[in-house]
Amino acid sequence: MPRWGMVIDLDKCTGCQACVIACKAENNIPFSSPKEARLKRIISWMSVLPVMEGEYPDLRERFIPRPCMHCDNPPCVKVCPVGATYKNREGLVAQVYTQCIGCRYCTNNCPYTLKYFNWYTPEWPKEMENYLNPDVPIRSKGVVEKCTFCHHRLQKAREKARAENRRLKEGDYVPACVQTCPTEAIYFGDLDDPHSLVAKLARGPRAFRLLEELGTEPKVYYLTEGEWHG
Questions:
Q1: What is the CATH number of the domain that holds 183?
Q2: CB 189 within 8 Å of CB 170
């Protein structure tokens, strides 16, 4: 059984936020009005965090794209009273929207602040309704939502491989953010496959993980150069 993970090369990331837009379009993430933004109720499954390195005047700005970390030891799963968030067999931290009661224990227990409560009924301009992805459900008001590594794409890739009587191979399944990145800074694959590129990069000397000292065991790795570790 694969254990899906991601590697992001911070030396390639330009902060263009193409991954953010691709994620929003792929997963039917609702727009946030200026009013909601002022209340800090923006929903964005992928975010890009700017970080300043060095001291003035020798400053360098870096960008850290942040999807859900899909932790191997997810703190959000431990506190959900109804089992609406859980880790599946392939290591993905899934969200059952129809089971979520909106208590937000999981959002409070996520150290990465990457789970979002849907405060309002999602609406889109009429001219954009035909552009919604039919493979992704529309989340109702009052539930928690988050990055799924575009799990619906995995389902399609698995069905195609089954129809062709073969196993999934590297590159069959990639999330929208990986596909869209113009500098190819994001890699995706099976962390348990020693021959996969993402596994090799995750084991390399440039790799580190955010807040890994907390013991969450995130499956999103970052690459950098020198001694910089976020």
A1: 3.30.70.20
A2: yes
